[in-house]
Amino acid sequence: MPPEQVPTTRPATSRGDRPAPGGKPKRLLLLIPTTTYRTEDFVEAARRLEVDLVIASERPNVMASEFPDHLLSLPFNDPDAAARQVEVLARTRPIHAVVPVDDTTTVVGAAIAERLGLPSANSVAAVSATRNKLRMREILARAGVPGPDHVAFSVTDDSRAAARRVPYPCVLKPLVLSASRGVIRADDEGEFIAAFRRIAAILADPEVQALGEGADRILVERFIPGAEVALEGLLNHGELNTLALFDKPDPLDGPFFEETIYVTPSRLPAETQRAIQVCAARAATALGLQDGPVHAEVRLDAEGPWMLEIAARSIGGLCSRTLRFGTGLTLEEIILRHALGLPIESLEREGRAAGVMMIPIPKGGILEGVEGLAEARAVPLIEDVTISAHKGEEIVPLPEGHRYLGFIFSRADTPAETEAALRQAHACLRFVIR
Q: What is the predicted pLDDT for the residue at 63?
């Protein structure tokens, strides 16, 4: 598809406003894992839409007995069983949309939507491919979507023999984890062996093993130098609408790949941005994704964009708070309106630049306190500083860890001002870690 045919905005969803039978509020099922950052923002968006909200988690909620029709526990690691359970509920309380809010719920969300026959649901096969990095890489390669050369190994393979089979520099990564967990660059055989064994130890964790297929394999990709960007999009009947393109101004060259600053709008040339959009649209089509939010990670070098990964969900952490659309809609409201078939006035992002810093972890240990919060919040152009880690919590840096210390948010007239404010606020913070 040529660049001029890739839309970046759409005034409204084309699925139409589908009221619930009898004029009653539509019933929305949110799939919210207990480890997600996203609960508050999605629940608040549902409240503003005045839907009949049902929340499902993988662990029983202490209030479930008081609200049995609104709080469910579902086996997220068994999509078929979860879909059957929801199907029973839907016989008496019809579900009009199901929205997974994080990586661990995308496949089960597709299974439920497929079982209930919800309109424009992504297939389980398509979403499952996004959750397995090797399968995704193979599908994209067959479709001709630019991506790094790759090979996969079992954790039981001889790491020394494997180290002799790959070109350098390369990047080793688990097939099924996210948030850069277990992603390590190796520049020679010694670094490869150390990285291989380190990732194997991460994959041996019982919680990781519970993720199922792919939890015992390691993907090795050619390292692509250059800038990295993130594209936030919304698919509507297979058509990709670009909601935002984020620059990542800090270099992501390894050995670990801790993401820090996201800033939008992108400062890349318009032609480069169009090429990124085309790459993301081709990837979604190749995987069979048709509907709902997507989040893509793309590398850029002299040859153009290279697709690293694309996920069938929205941006992670609290990063969505940087985005506002139309007359002030949040990203979560856009996603819920689209899923429910409610009208969306505009997918045009607000005019001001916005950015977020995912606060990097300086070292591992027990968090005893955070100093300098008042000073950081007082920095001009800073909207908020949110510390998501709790006092007494064990802080684990990458590549073993997958949580952030917190988030800093800024809004300004230009991307450069936004980035500068984020860095200034971060410089005010001091984390006391024992």
A: 57
**Does the bond joining 362 to the residue before it have cis omega, within 30 degrees of 0?**
no
3-class secondary structure for 354-410? EEEEECCCCCCEEEEEEECHHHHHCCCCEEEEEECCCCCCEECCCCCCCCCCEEEEE
**pLDDT for 363-383, tens place per residue?**
999 999 999 999 999 999 999
CA dist list (Å): 7 to 188, 255, 281, 419: 43, 36, 10, 27
Q: Which two tokens stand for residue 193?
A: 């062996």
Q: How far, in Å, CA of 416 to CA of 422, rounded?
A: 10
Structure tokens of 347? 């997918």
Which pLDDT tens digit goes with each residue over 402-417?
A: 889 999 999 999 999 9
Give the per-residue pLDDT at 57.
94
Nearest to 299 by CA among 423, 185, 189, 135: 185
Q: Which helix (H) or strand (E) holds 433?
A: strand 430-433
Domains of the chain, each with CATH number or no CATH: 3-128 (3.40.50.20), 148-222 (3.30.1490.20), 352-434 (3.30.470.20)
Contact 199, 399 (CB under 8 A): yes
Amino acid at 7: P
